[in-house]
Design a protein that fits this description.
Strand content: 5-15%
Oligomer: single chain
Number of helices: 8
Strand order of the largest sheet: 3-2-1-4-5-6-7
Structural class: alpha/beta
CATH superfamily: NAD(P)-binding Rossmann-like Domain
Number of domains: 1
Number of strands: 7
Order of helices and strands: EHEHEHEHEHEHHHE
Largest sheet: 7 strands, parallel
Distance between the termini: 28 Å
CATH class: Alpha Beta
CATH topology: Rossmann fold
Length: about 260
């Protein structure tokens, strides 16, 4: 159960982040909705439980913004029990020779260093919780990367390493740290990925989607609610001895 706990979700303005935040709220948790865009207010309106939601405009690349957001969450709800590091960007879809240092650095800054920034600020509060947990949203793209997605693959593989290191660091205080590795999740974001991959390869987007589906054991895109349900499970008492793991929710897109 995660009822009456406090959860901080980054990237909560849309897509998977919104789904995760809503799933926690449905289970009775207080939820801080953090993202750069004002979509967090739409997420809060969709959840429609004003006394248990807090929308905070947060930039995970800005240490001061992160610190202020964590402080506001703790001041509002009285503590912090779970952190979901979901904020991330796709980075460029291009061959290595066509990528720039700036694109690599931006992708790593958001997807890896951003996780470190938020977790560092949340850590003292999570250590004080009786049920502290960190859930990092990685990707099977960090396990079996696609061509022309080098920065993204590096960031998501790196996030798995960060997850394992933090699990070792936080274990003595009973804080679990795990990663969820979604496969292609149904929604606007994956459609955009298909389109960019198709453009880079000079083929129709439908052909890219068909190839991806054929690579899965279940030839369906992953419903976002299944990823959200896994996040809730990892934050619950039922998972107190699950830590340092990278768990696939991928329609069989990865098996290691």
């Amino acid at each position: 159960m995660v009822a009456d706990s406090t959860v901080f979700v980054t990237g909560a303005s849309q897509g998977l982040g919104r789904e995760i935040a809503t799933a926690f709220a449905d289970e009775g948790a207080d939820v801080a909705l953090a993202a750069r865009s004002d979509g967090i207010y739409e997420t809060a309106a969709q959840i429609d439980v004003p006394d248990r939601t807090l929308a905070i405009e947060t930039d995970v690349t800005d240490p001061e913004s992160v610190a202020d957001a964590i402080d506001e969450t703790v001041d509002t709800f009285g503590g912090l029990d779970c952190l979901v590091n979901n904020a991330g960007i796709a980075g460029p879809t291009a061959p290595l020779e066509e990528t720039t240092d700036g694109e690599w650095l931006e992708t790593l800054d958001v997807n890896v260093v951003g996780v470190a920034r938020v977790t560092r600020e949340a850590a003292p509060h999570l250590r004080e919780s009786e049920q502290g947990s960190v859930i990092n949203i990685s990707s099977i793209g960090g396990k079996r990367p696609y061509a022309n997605r080098g920065p993204y693959a590096a960031s998501k593989m790196g996030l798995i390493g960060v997850t394992r290191a933090l699990a070792a660091e936080f274990g003595d205080d009973g804080v679990t740290v795990n990663a969820i590795c979604p496969g292609p999740v149904e929604g606007e974001r994956i459609r955009g990925v298909f389109e960019r991959q198709a453009e880079a390869a000079g083929v129709p987007a439908e052909a890219v989607e068909e190839e991806v589906l054929e690579s899965l054991m279940i030839d369906e895109l992953v419903p976002p609610e299944e990823v959200a349900d896994m996040a809730v499970h990892l934050a619950s008492e039922a998972s107190r001895h699950v830590t340092g793991q990278d768990i696939n929710v991928s329609s069989g897109g990865a098996w290691y």
